[in-house]
Amino acid sequence: MRDEYRFPAEKHTVPTCQDILHANGAISGEENGGGVYIVKKVENEKTILCKALSKNLEIPAAHMDFSVEMEAKEKALYTGKRIHMAVNLTNNGQVPFYKISLQAKVKEQELVPVWEKEPGLEVLESGAVLECLSAGETRTLSFYIDPDIDQKSNLELELFAKTENPVSLEQAAEKQLTLQLGKASFTVKKTADCDNASPGETVTYQISIHNTGEVTLHSVVTTERFGLAGVTATFQEQRGITLNKSRTQAKIQEIAPGGCVNLKAKVVLPKDLKDQNLMNQIIVVTDETGEESAVRDQATIRVEDKEKDGSGNGSGNGKGGGNGDGTGIGSGNNDGNTMAASTSPSPKTGDSSHKELFQVLILLSFLFSAVAARRMFGGNAHR
Q1: Average pLDDT value over all residues in the chain
Q2: Are 77 and 118 contained in the same domain?
Q3: Are residues 39 and 73 in the same domain?
Q4: pTM
């Protein structure tokens, strides 16, 4: 029997056939005949299981009903943090429902619930429409709301579900939510891809912004800054990030609690940059924390001209001469064209008499050496 006969919207009576079905399965027409039969057919053989002689069949109205419930998915709810709601639609009746329109509202608030896409669900600006809900079926749908950081502590949600097919039927649900005051906080970490660099080289910085609070951060503005004039780092383009004309500022639309966004900035060091420790700073501000609570971090690298440091060659010849008073002058020549002069002080013996004694001893040693040499050479000549 077709569904429209099995599960009519209203109770009604339908006429039965005017033929009589005999025990052997044969049907004969009689003017006053009639009835309802349940027949079992195996191949060409028919067997009457039961029959009721009646000219009309009374069919009761089908049971048609569905229910709707909603619940917050998160256990703890905070102001400034997105709230996800789960909606359960259950068909408790005997027939399917079609084109069920759904509309959610927040009482006395300007918050607009946003439905999330699901198979068989058409999302509209004013709500959503479920294509079909079969008999006995339960569908779980969801929508979310974004309360402000200064939102009232309590929210009252209303949900309306309505269908016109096969009958006009409407159900509603309400839910009260208690929100805790959310805390906005985040951390910033900046690192360079090297510790040392030379003028003319490119240095890449990575900036990591991590939302450590309970609320969603909005309009996260990041600014690059060097403490040295003429040196500028620029952000690299990436999806979802808005840069200013000079590319020294990057704007992130939002960062959810627990979320992290990584940015990259590059700088080409000027070729005339002097040897120094070069510091690069990052400043991050959000709508929730304000400029007074801006978070900063910095990365420092050592800039040195490697070619200049390695240009000198120390090979060369040097000559030096000494005077009897202990002073000496030496000169040297190398590939670096450097000249050096040094002075060796005379021995310090405490006073001038010791100096004179020292000179006398040197003179005596020369005399003794000369006498010994004379005797040796004189003796050899005599022989």
Answers
A1: 77
A2: yes
A3: no
A4: 0.53
